[in-house]
Write the structure tokens for this entry.
Amino acid sequence: MPTKDVLRDLEVLFKSRYGLIHLDTEEPDRALSLLRHVADRLPVPLFTWSRVEGIHRVDRPGKIFDTKEPRKALAHVAAAGIPAVYHFHAVGAHLETDEVFRAHLRVGARKLEELDGALVLTGSGLSFPPDLSPLVATVTLPGPGEAEYRDLLGNLLRDLSRRGHVEVSLTREEMASLLRHLSGLTLLEAEKVLTKAIVEDGRLAADDIRHVIEAKKAVVEREGLLEYYPAEQTLEDVADLARLKAWLGKRRNVVANPVRATEFGLTFPRGVLLLGVPGCGKSLSAKAVAREWGLPLLKFDTSNLYNKYIGESEKNFNRAIRAAERMAPVVLWIDELEKAFAMGGTEDGGVSQRILGTFLSWMQDRRGEVFIVATANDIGRLPPEFLRKGRFDEIFFVDLPDAATRKEIFRIHLASRGLDPETFDLDHLARGSEEFSGSEIEEVVVSGLYTAFAENRTLSTQSLERATASTVPLAVTMGEKVQSLRDWARTRTVPAN
């Protein structure tokens, strides 16, 4: 939602006599700037409160005596009896624990309803108790848009150029990429990271995007629900999966050239669901996509999602998706999707179903550039809503590797450990590892190395052959389940191999 739409919505709420408004944002300065415009249009005076200064009118000097304490500040609002907009920030803790504060808030809101004014509380994810929720109207202030970041950068370059020479060596596409990567940072955070990037060497270039990504990494780590993964693997490290690679390659151009893509009528891709046999490269593909596309990779660890306290799981989920949107453009990796949203059972009191509904709505309506790579092993536990067209751009099935792919997997894992693959009989090893997954082949190499090290000799084809013979692959131990998955996927998914 553009800022001008938020401005219009706020004006409508004031004229509709809502005495209590929650402006959902982490940027009180942007919120205050927006409220200035609203107050000018109404027109009414605008007051703001802080713990340090208490209440003061924004267009006049001086403070209102003895209003630093939140309860006293609200008591003043009710006693003043004038039509005005009052801005309060960072009062979430009082909403949750202070009944007297909530009583003052209720009285002040009721009073302002009669006077064509309102109390505006700013903060992210404020929770209102049942006695206040009927009085509250919530409006979400979206993060800064490209135009705001561009204005910020222009002002910053002018200011820094007065102190010394600043070289800007960015193409049109590189500038667009820089501004897109700033998405999700507050204007204050963006100003700090851009200033640091420019001051370091007196120039602004494409490689300064790394400063932005590092700043976003700090944001993710602060939230604690998403894991930032360094994107080290490339698609060359993933054997075969030719159809998946071709599909991703076509969409890479959209990510790399967003301006041209928009002019062409294309939007940011939504995501893929990778179903298949465990250990066949689904998770590795998620990591490789981020590296190939030059985007940060976030892992949504669903084990941290659920909380024993009522309502906390939903809050955790909302915080996680907000953090992902702040990092955009980004690849969001959700491993073993079925474990987070398992179908059936009511032992969690319906929490998983409520989160599922929220997640599906977000997938359908999200506007941020978040590319989802979700993986699943057990299709029987996956809610059918995920399989409907439109949730993901495509659903791929990752099968066990064929002989040529197994040969390539042996080559990759031997080379990654400093061994020369050409000194091994890779064709023989590939034939002897039928129905092995990629991860099982890797374990064969690791097991052979342990044995060779213990026996103080070099690794050989025979060592790997013995390690293969002593391994029973999952496709054998769970043959019926693997075959059932293959049968299901044959007519419902696109082969990734």
Summary: The longest helix spans residues 146-163. The chain has four domains: 3-140, 146-223, 235-398, 403-477. The domain at 3-140 is CATH 3.40.50.300 (Rossmann fold).
